[in-house]
Amino acid sequence: MTAPASDATTTSDGVRDGALLQVRDLTTTFPVRSNGVFRRTVGAVQAVTGVSLDVDAGETLGIVGESGCGKSTTGRSILQLIRPDSGSVVYDGRELVGLSAKEMRPLRRELAMVFQDPFGSLDPRLPVAELIAEPLRIHQVYAAESDLRARVDELLGLVGLKSEHRNRYSHEFSGGQRQRIGIARALAANPRLIVLDEPVSALDVSVQAGVVNLLEDLQERLGLSYLFIAHDLSVVRHISDRVAVMYLGKVVELGDAAQVYDNPRHPYTRALLSAVPLPDPSAERRRRKSRVVLSGEIPSPADPPSGCRFRTRCPKAQQRCADEVPLLRPSDAANRHTFACHFPDGDADSAA
Amino acid sequence: MSLLEVEGLSVTFPTEDGQVHAVRDVSFHVEPGEVLGVVGESGSGKSVSLMAVPRLLPNSASVTGSIRFDGTELVGAGAETLRGLRGSEIAMIFQDPMSSMNPVHTVGRQIAEARRAHASVSKDEAWRDAVAALALVDIPQPETRAKQYPHEFSGGMRQRAMIAMAMVNRPRLIIADEPTTALDVTVQAQVLEVLDQARVESGASLVLVSHDLGVVAGTADRVQVMYGGTIVETGPTEEVFDRPRMPYTVGLLSSLPAVDQIGERLHPIPGAPPSLVSLPSGCTFAPRCPLVEEACREAEPALVAVGTDHHSRCRRWEVLAEGSTTDLFARSSGASGATGSTMGVSA
């Protein structure tokens, strides 16, 4: 089911009409309050501004970007864990924005989340079996306790843990095993879409590889869709079918993983890729000479630059970038690789 | 003569569960102007072995062996000797710049203070040195920035200010412990460049401790890989990365997603790192090693020469030298089942 794009029509904003999850123009802001007694709202942080993307059944969309780019807020806004200000999130034909908590509840069975910190996201007072059973109890999936028990054992097996582990507590497990428990919990109610927010960032590399393999196995076996949020570009490339690059609340480039990584059009994507150190000394020595080292740091999302938000750090910035917000535009005829830049890399007119 | 010569260093900590053998019989050296990379995963002893050099360890730590800095023995040296070296001859850069700076003093004042702690210079001179140090690490408008407080600096700038503080006394050895781990990649690239520039300009030696193999690959002249509190492989960076002769190093490298192997499965190292309280007998990597033999579990192997200046703590390194090392862990993870159940709880 990994090539469903052909039958779905891609609309002008790059979102496929038939996709399982369709996000259009999603905007989430956080109020900035004064320090006084009344804590008046004095401004707004634009965490996510006009994000459009889609994820189809059985597909993985990776979201990459640096801290403060809004990738986590995008994930949470899609699941309505943070209420977006505007925009549309259509999951399986249903609009999620504006639903009450009660209306959302049955949908939460199908939409799960895995968090970064396997230490902070598991209640230390519950044994593993209860941690995994909790979502099943909340959704009242099983009437009989024996069914519930059988399902917990099944889930433990699915994530590579043993049923003997069911009565242990989370502190008895290593980081990688804890993340497996977090995944089992997310899988409990048979979701169709899982938002994974930096699921392997806290793990050592040798352990990280095992969790990545597990996620790929589970996707294949259960037909899951993933929204995989991470800052590690190599892991995202490895696991994703498609990749969205975010900068300061906006998607600056979106396309098939190979297109985005091998033929980046946005200068930020290019800089990001060139900054990743490779575990290959001779290649690294060569790359160091051609590395695009960006000056400055990410501006405050409370006061983003006018026009293109990347222009303050962009080696190619010109007056037009300050005056005019670049819109996402297609790189190819199929409309599957889009970028938002007035002076993109890698085409003829940029050389002029 | 080596600038730093560490021999038979061991560090243990008493805990409720018993003695933790954080570092066991570690020997290494750092030459003048050299960059040594120290890699390993959490709990491998990489940080503790370097923190032992300026003795930045809790008082409960027991340190044995020898650490000679420019000929001076530091193990057992008096507090006065160490205080004279710390921050002047031996500078430290830590992961978290926020907690290494005093929030109620300006950045310039803190750097000037570090200068005055080791040199008899006037306040004005120390201030000028601080501003010059900030300029050295590419902080724009250093005069203005010196008068600001740490919270007015962004993460990357704070880390650069820490490098400035480390460089202000012209150290001969810089120990950087995960200096870019808390930073975003584009900022990491800036900080690594600044660190390299400052090092080249001052001629100092650098020990770079990092879990990130990429960071070490691009920076270090030599690298040492640590596992279970000891060095398991050491050699010139390209040798170790291109011709690893220790299964653990092979495993570390093959568990990273490679750009040229899209769509292929990753090859994790099965099992979990050893407990430093009760280490397995024999080779500490034996329980996770695809090449393990009975003899490996009997006695811990010594570091043996496997190439020019290249050493490995593996009895079976010749197996790695004979064939391709890339599928070593592919074979082992395939054998342990397709469900990915490669991680048993360490009992």
UniProtKB/TrEMBL annotation, chain A:
NCBIfam families documented for this protein: oligo_HPY (TIGR01727)
Annotated Pfam families: ABC_tran (PF00005), oligo_HPY (PF08352)
Entry superkingdom: Bacteria
UniProt record similarity statement: Belongs to the ABC transporter superfamily.
The protein's name in its UniProt record: ATP-binding cassette domain-containing protein
Keyword set, alphabetical order: ATP-binding, Nucleotide-binding, Transport
Domain spans labelled ABC transporter: 32-273
Disordered, as annotated region: 280-308
Keyword Transport belongs to the record: yes
Lineage: Bacteria, Bacillati, Actinomycetota, Actinomycetes, Pseudonocardiales
Alphabetical list of InterPro entries matching this protein: AAA+_ATPase, ABC_transp_ATP-bind, ABC_transporter-like_ATP-bd, ABC_transporter-like_CS, Oligopep_ABC_C, P-loop_NTPase
Keyword ATP-binding attributed: yes
GO molecular function: ATP binding
Originating organism: Actinomycetospora termitidis
UniProtKB/TrEMBL annotation, chain B:
SUPFAM superfamilies the record matches: P-loop containing nucleoside triphosphate hydrolases (SSF52540)
Coiled coil (residue ranges): none
Residue span, ABC transporter domain: 4-253
Keywords of this entry: ATP-binding, Cell membrane, Membrane, Nucleotide-binding, Transport
Broad class of the protein's primary localization: membrane
Keyword rRNA-binding on entry: no
Protein name, per record: ABC transporter ATP-binding protein
